[in-house]
Amino acid sequence: MILLRNIGIEGSARDVLIENGVISKIAPAGSSLSWELAGDIEIMECSGKVAVPGFVNMHTHAGMALMRGVGEDMVFQDWIRSIWAIEDKFDADFVYWSTKVACMEMIRTGTTTFNDQYWFFPDTHRAASEMGVRHALGYDVIDRNDPEETEREKEQCTRWYEEKAAGVRESGNIYQVAFHAIYSVSEPMIRWVSEFARERGLNLHIHLCETRKEVEDCKAAHGGLTPVEYLDELGVLGPNLLAAHTLWLTEHDIELLAARGVHCIHNINSNAKLSSGYKFLYNEMRDAGINLCIGTDGCASSNNLDILEAMKTSALFQKAWREDPKALPLEELLAMATVNGARALKLNAGKLEEGALADINIVDTDNSFFLSPAPFLANFIYSAHSDCIDSVICGGRFVMRHREIEGEKEILEQARKQITRML
What's the pLDDT tens digit per position in 283-304? Predict the structure, then answer.
């Protein structure tokens, strides 16, 4: 058991008791004496600190954490070709240590759950499990429109599900499948993996409408259909679909995504950095009833995994291009980074409530960023940096305590060796 004593929640001091991985009790500060007498309990005095739900990074590629800066100042099409050429050399060890680095960075910046899409997913699972970060992952299909590769991918996808899905679930994580994008996966493969996911009750994680070129190429190849319309004709859209980017959308696209219950994921840093675009139609999608989440994308395109930075950038871009300071208000911004992602992954998380998973960021307000009498969220998102996050609890277990993460030196040492070996 863990007791967080005198921690700020929504402007008031509270005592929070954590048992068996969940928040079991929240009460006014000073109410915890009877809890302390109940048995073996670890007490953290949290005066001057505020609790925030752990962040849910809804789109990333943890195995790319050692690839920062390898494709700078390139348009998306050139960038992705160069990335694929580098990735062809990767092996399981590289992805394992890269994921360790990614998890270390996500913990430091407050992420307790991440939705991943990458190769060598069993090694991602092993690394993330050792670091204590909750994750959603599975086999990623990309046949590059090669019929022989299509058949191999089907066999691999089926075999990995049979061998790994149960173990991932038993560890408290989420097994799902993915296909890369409509331009890198053949139509038969898209149909097959979509049905594979639906029959087994799995999420399907994809890139969708990331660039203008993707939309134009799809319309040229499929009788004027946008990527969203094309996937709807194939029967792919549904409440199990986790669609990253969703940047270049029409009004009809938004109607379809809302009607089918698709969860959409904003990735402002990578979209802006690769000059893919910035006019994410947040208001239009929100008003249509779409569940909207935030991701960082991988480090090769966004360069870091800091959700707090992604929240700020998302809001600033919305306010700027709409010329509306009320665009993407603070409460909605925090929801995108917490409870909305949890909802997409079907987790009782992203909120500080009794019975919810104990995924908690403990924010230290004893610094210049919180001197202002402004609301906490304004200071936290617009002023502070993620190093104000003092400690992080995931599933009722400390994964960072007072900015210290177990094994950090070894992870960095091994990561340097992997970079030398591969890059």
Answer: 999 999 999 999 999 999 999 9
